[in-house]
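Tutorial handout. Part one gives the primary structure; part two gives the three-dimensional structure as tokens.
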Amino acid sequence: MNGWLLFAFGFWVAAWALNEALVRIRTRNLAARKTINFIVPLLFGVTLLVIWEGVVKGFEIPSILLPAPSAIWARLTSSVPTLWADFQQTFMKSVIIGYIMGCGLGFVAALFIDRSPFLKKGLLPIGNFVSALPVVGVAPIMVMWFGFDWPSKVAVVVIMTFFPMLVNTVEGLASSSSMQRDLMRTYASGWGQTLTKLRLPAAMPFIFNALKINSTLALIGAIVAEFFGTPIVGMGFRISTEVGRSNADMVWAEIAVAAVAGSVFYGLVALTERAVTFWHPSVRGGQT
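Part two.
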């Protein structure tokens, strides 16, 4: 058997045994638990990379089909200016602006729907329909309407993030019990006070669920939208261009940057959720 395959197999066995030992440790020390919870997925990820490297080199798979992680890392380190420019164009402009606009408009629309049974019955079914539209069908239309630069990508992101926020916020506002709402009425609370003191806090888990979903949808929408027209910069543009040039390592480098950016974005939203909804059983249960 090839040496690379032997090394990958041995590393996998050792990592498996170590992870099995770590997950069986029972300790009441919070720092130790957090350390174990960090090491286990990290070791699992490193193992996947080692197996990937060993399989590619062991079976001598051509780089055009599947480059090794070492080749992708070499491309990452040698193309930092290009990757940074693409990241700024796609993430800092299209994703962030579209995410804020889409989630903000969805939240405001949910407040109006909450006040209007007509809108609730009329707009929500349309929202479910629009949310099912494929981004590959919407993106070319937005490019024709708003041009090839980042505004058309923002429009795609707004469409993709608006309705998840709308639907989740409406559901969250309705999650408080009738007994709780009756109690607020006995205190002569109006709609605004009931909203801010009871219904919005109760809706926060739903709202953050939409924010987490949208953190990945926004990035996917912006990258796919760039396939249909963009200036000569951007993650989607780079991926489509380098695929045509058969530069698979650059394609994977862009994918790696997008994956890291999306994971960090999701993690920041999740951390914010833990700080805001510290009272929720799901959060308190994870801290015990």
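Part three, for discussion. The chain has two domains: 3-61, 78-287. The longest helix spans residues 80-115.
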